[in-house]
Structure formats: structure tokens, C-alpha cells
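I am going through a labmate's work and have reached the protein record below. What it holds is a sequence and that sequence's fold in C-alpha cell form. Please read both lines and tell me whether the C-alpha cells look consistent with the sequence. Do not assume that whoever made the record got everything right. Thanks in advance; the entry in question is below.
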Amino acid sequence: MTRVKICGLTNLEDAICATEAGADMLGFIFYPKSPRAAHVDVVMDIAPVVRAINPDVKCVGVFVNESPAHMLRILDLAGLDYAQLSGDEPPEVLRAMGSRAYKVVREGHQLAAFAFAIPNPQPNAPDFLLDTPHTQLYGGTGVRADEFVASALARQHRMILAGGLNPNNVAEAIRAVQPWGVDVSSGVEAAPGKKDHEKVRAFVKYVRG
């Protein structure tokens, strides 16, 4: 079964919608420059509510170029399962996070160093997330990944596919790449930081279908 990660959540209403729709992972962005940045105090209240709906849902904090100590503190404070390293972090930072983090790798950007670095021993966690490269943005580019590269990596790793996915193209992307999971943020939004609940439900439906 392909896992679904709904990212860029900023409020309880959207998080409940994503959980009830069947999302396996919920992403909260702790990068102040992002239009989808979440506040730690809000996420602290969200985590126990969504786990009451689905005890197996995983909550992920998305970070950009933060220290391991800072990320671990936020994970513990907000009650999150994993950190997603979405910046220019070197392999040493991923290694310091142990099994509580996975890295975003981008085509042509230190791919080998991270894709084959430290396999996460937990069966319900990804090895890494594959996103498209951009000169100025850390994620949220809305650009599809190269399916040839993505499918080759998906055959060897628990990979989350991200970049330009939405309810209209996710089924096609899954057929072409066969990833462990898929990630969506802007593709199910009404506006940056606010989800369109019909799109969220449709995205999960097409992944499952």
C-alpha cells in the first residue's frame, strides 16, 4: 500500500481532515520563511487529537538547516515522530538524528550521499524523500520529479515521492514510479497554509484506488 503524507498543515481542522481521509503521515513545517510555517504551540495541540482518531498516524516536523539539538527538542516538545531534513544538511546531521529523521534528496544534489546513507531501521518510516531541485526554494516547487530516476530509486528504497503531485496526477505517478509513499502540500490547498478538504480527500482516494 502506498503511504500518503499530507504536508504543510498549519491548523487543527486541516489535520483532522487529512487524518480522517486516511493519511498515514502529517507534515508540519518549522521553517519561518515558508508560507506554510506552523507554530509549535499549535502543533502541540494537534498531535494528540489526530492520534486519538488514528493511533498509527505519524507526525513529521519539517526543518531547514537546523541543528540536531534544536530539532530533537521540537520533536519532543510537539510530540512528533520524525524530522524531515529539507535543507542543505550534511550527512553528519542525519547521522546525529539516528532513527528519528530522514533526508530530502534532490536530483543532482548530493543524491548518492543521502539516498544510501543510513537506512532507517523502522519499518513504518521512509529511507528518504525525493523532491525536485530548485535554486531558491526548499520544497514546494510544484515541479514533477524525473520518473526514470525516481522509479530506479523506488525499486531499492522506501522512498517518498514529492513534487507537483495533486489529485489529478497522483495515480499516474504511482503507476510510473511505484514509490513507498507520496507527499503533497500545494496540490491540495485552497491557499498557502490552508487545505482544500475536498482535494485532500480526493488525493487519498486516488492513491488508494
